[in-house]
Design a protein that fits this description.
Rossmann fold; 3 domains; 47% helix; Polysaccharide_Synthase-Rel; NAD(P)-bd_dom_sf; membrane; alpha/beta; 22 strands; Polysac_CapD-like
């Protein structure tokens, strides 16, 4: 490129000499050499030759033009004081403008030729969908233009064929020959018109509700759908381009849940330099608790779980991320084993306990109620009692919306756990006992999403229990963030209720997941209704009838009204439940659960014959 720049200056001098009828002498040759050396030196110093002009921005061209204009000024000064005869002011201005324009045009021509070569290569691949896919970009703002440039200037394997935007001022305009269409409601028609293979949602600043609406429209097209991260999630300094950060649309994106914003400093204040113990630490919620707590520099993190494989997985993940900076201890133990749990409390003296260990599978607990009581109820009582005996600062129980007016054994046992927390909070204790109640989390072990995905991978059918079933959903990181925030707010005895947003129809969830997988519901993948399973409700409730609801400083966290526990009566009933569980007496267990939890209506949605039939079908 340097040789071309020198040639440009020589040609410009030659043109000036011809136009103005001058013959070069030694002084003018000296000025020519001086201007060339000066300009090339400035090009080198200012990094002009380090720029990849294929990706050049406006600032690069501006800097180049300034140097060329400066060379023209120097030429004018030399003409005034050195040249003989003088070229004159007109010739100097002509040199200044012609030199700058010619050198800039040289770069523009190079960039254009590179673009034509690339376009020719893409055109050759256009009939090979596996190599080059036709891309529709939603949005015609800054992020979209960046993505467009990346696809044009690097081998991404995508051809942008259309932009879609709702701004009427942009519709029917063009970006480098690519049309801007709109509004978003026309996406299905536009996908057919432009034979689109992939849709990219490229509006990182878009609100959750509008994002959900547009992605729902995209999911009906049958095209592969990708999205850029939210604006706060984009990594600008990793070396990765914006297009490289695009990911496939997940079912969470179609829920339209607002991003959780909470006070990191307040959470760090009660986690930092504290010994934190998480029971069920290898599970979905427990492992995410470990991940998020690790960010706040705990003095020590103790992970307790009975299942060694999950514990090992999260151990390796945390070691890889934090190395020796995190004091991590893995303990394989059951919360039902008081002796082992007491040994752990004696050894580590935990200050903050998050109790996530529990049996949560509703139908399995219907047929194994003794295990639900032993693990959920008695395990909670053991860990809570030890927290009190060893003067821990906080005990946070992870509860569920199924504890509200329960119709299943699992929900009834979790309501007993909440009552244990409230009972412990009534004692004169240094420990702050609280429970955090929320609904289903997407992608957790045993949740409906992984089941749907397996069924889709197997070609269907996708099984839904009932067409009218609705559930509340949130993501695992969102739930854990709110659990930590609620733990900071705890004073003792509260049942914190998380705002789960709008309820979701499971049938709609299944249909959207099928579409996101590139299939058409009821056409490519069938949906079958299997009937409610033992203990299932059509809908979940987040508050008991006798509880009130009080707003906290966080708009996503509420506090249920505390209910007085009759201590002697509660302990008597709890002992009766334990004895029934120890003898594996299913009938007695159900009777004691109904005594402990008056709102437990085991036959509200299912009767005994339905439970027995379900068990026979699934055991066979």
């Amino acid at each position: 490129m340097m040789g071309a720049d020198v040639a440009v200056v020589l040609v410009v001098f030659a043109i000036i000499s011809l136009l103005f009828g001058y013959t070069l002498n030694l002084r003018q040759i000296g000025i020519l050499i001086f201007v060339i050396v000066l300009q090339e030196t400035l090009f080198v110093v200012m990094g002009i030759y380090t720029i990849l002009w294929r990706y050049a921005e406006v600032l690069d061209y501006f800097r180049l033009g300034c140097i060329c204009l400066f060379s023209g000024v120097v030429f004018f000064i030399c003409d005034v004081f050195v040249a003989e005869p003088r070229y004159g002011g007109v010739a100097c201005i002509f040199f200044m403008l012609l030199n700058a324009n010619a050198i800039i045009f040289l770069r523009v021509l190079y960039r254009y030729l590179q673009y034509k070569v690339r376009k020719g290569n893409i055109t050759k691949c256009e009939n090979q969908p596996a190599v080059a896919k036709r891309l529709l970009i939603i949005g015609a703002g800054t992020a979209s233009i960046h993505v467009f440039r990346e696809t044009r200037t690097s081998q991404t394997g995508y051809i942008p064929v259309c932009f879609v935007d709702d701004d009427p001022n942009k519709i029917n305009r063009r970006v480098n020959e690519v049309p801007i269409e709109g509004p978003s409601d026309r996406i299905p028609q536009l996908c057919k018109k432009y034979r689109v293979d992939v849709i990219l949602f490229a509006i990182p600043s878009c609100g959750e509700e509008r994002r959900k609406e547009i992605l729902s429209i995209c999911s009906t097209t049958g095209c592969e759908v990708k999205t850029l991260p939210f604006i706060h999630e984009i990594v600008f300094h990793s070396g990765a381009g914006l297009f490289e950060q695009a990911r496939k649309v997940k079912i969470e994106d179609l829920l339209g849940r607002a991003t959780v914003v909470f006070d990191d400093q307040s959470v760090q204040a009660y986690i930092q330099e504290k010994v934190c113990l998480i029971t069920g630490g290898g599970g979905s919620i427990g492992s995410e608790l470990c991940r998020q707590i690790a960010k706040y520099n705990p003095k020590k993190l103790i992970l307790v779980d009975i299942y060694e494989n999950n514990a090992y997985d999260i151990q390796q993940e945390l070691i890889q991320r934090y190395g020796n900076r995190l004091q991590l201890c893995i303990e394989i133990a059951s919360v039902r084993d008081r002796s082992k749990m007491e040994c752990l409390f004696q050894t580590y003296k935990p200050e903050i306990i998050f109790h996530a260990a529990a049996h949560k599978h509703v139908p399995l607990m219907e047929t194994n109620p003794e295990e639900a009581v032993k693990n959920n109820v008695m395990g909670t009582f053991i860990v809570a009692s030890l927290s009190n005996e060893y003067a821990a600062q906080k005990f946070v129980l992870i509860s569920t919306d199924k504890a509200v007016n329960p119709t299943n054994v699992m929900g009834a046992t979790k309501r007993c756990c909440e009552m244990i927390v409230q009972y412990m909070a009534q004692q004169r204790t240094q420990t702050e006992f609280v429970a955090v109640r929320f609904g289903n989390v997407l992608g957790s072990n045993g949740s409906v999403i992984p089941l749907f995905k397996r069924e889709i991978d197997n070609g269907g059918p996708v099984t839904v229990t009932h067409p009218d079933v609705i559930r509340y959903f949130m993501t695992i990181p969102e739930a854990v963030s709110l659990i930590l925030q609620a733990g900071h707010m705890a004073k003792g005895g509260e049942i914190f209720v998380l705002n789960m947003g709008e309820p979701v129809h499971i049938l709609t969830l299944a249909e959207n997941l099928i579409r996101l997988s590139g299939f058409e519901p009821y056409k490519d993948i069938e949906i079958q209704f299997t009937g409610l399973r033992p203990g299932e409700k059509l809908y979940e409730e987040l508050l008991m009838n006798e509880e009130g609801l009080k707003q906290t400083n966080h708009k996503r966290i509420f506090i249920g009204k505390q209910i007085k526990i009759q201590e002697d009566e509660f302990l008597h009933n709890l002992c009766g439940l334990k004895e029934a569980a120890d003898h594996n007496d299913k009938g007695q267990i159900l009777d004691w659960l109904k005594v402990l939890v008056p709102t437990f209506d085991h036959n509200r949605d299912l009767n005994t014959s339905q439970i027995l039939n379900w068990r026979e079908e699934h055991e066979s």
